[in-house]
Input
Amino acid sequence: DFVAGETYFGLRGYTEYQAGDLPIIVSAPHGGDLEPDQIPFRTYGVTTQDRQTQELARAVAAALFGRSDGRPHLIINRLHRNRLDANREIEEAAQGSVYAEWAWAEHHGFIDAAKQKVVQQYGRGLYLDLHGHGHDIQRLELGYLLRSSDLGLPDSLLDDPELINQSSIRRLALDAAAGFVELVRGATSLGGLLAQQGFGMISGIQIEVHWVGARDSTSSQAAFADALALVLETYLATHFQINLSAASTADSGEGQRGRQSAVKPRNSRTTSSVQRVDGAQTWALKTAARERVGVHARDVLDYRGACSREDEGG
Output
């Protein structure tokens, strides 16, 4: 079992999982920089790294810990995108490399493990998939698994059960008293709250982060991470009565109260240790990932991937 506060690596260190105790999962599939000789260059698909997104994901995790004394689950693909694209189906992602396929399976297996832990503790949670884009307009961009034409509909048409059901936040929409439209584009939506922090209006849950002022320096990363942590605290409290600040004082023995407040498990740690996942665990992760890839967005958590191809690599 993965223990909150400990860091786990795959067999060759290509994947990393920092186990958490908050109902939040953060991943960075395109920020890795390892280019091992044993994995050949990918010959098709996007191969450009989303610069500084690994560092940004770590900053977001640190900011959440600073605000709540709790840890999000953090999953990082440490391989460069020219070796593995962890946010594509395995054929395009690994292109026949056994080592890349193994790392892909570990990455998705860690996501599944984090999701299982969140569901066990809270019954629901939020997944944030961090990417970078290289568009001329420096603003945040997110995706709901809805078309832009859908998002442009008037409120009465956007609040359609069919659209809600196909969106990446359908699980959150079931619980939010404010309704789907407010979650998507209202003042207390994730985009609305981030706009109030000066990061521009956005749509969705998968975060495509611009370069200037958000990823281009350590100070920019810290400023964005602090703003996002504050926004998440407000967003979860406003819509789902999840109090992240309670994570440091609540006890896992309170069972289903985790649905109403952030319950910190008894075995959580305040310092991180490092472990490597052994062969049997990796095989289990690989098997689970092959069976479950692509279903994260349609299950209990709200978003896994379906990354737009308009990211930094094009």
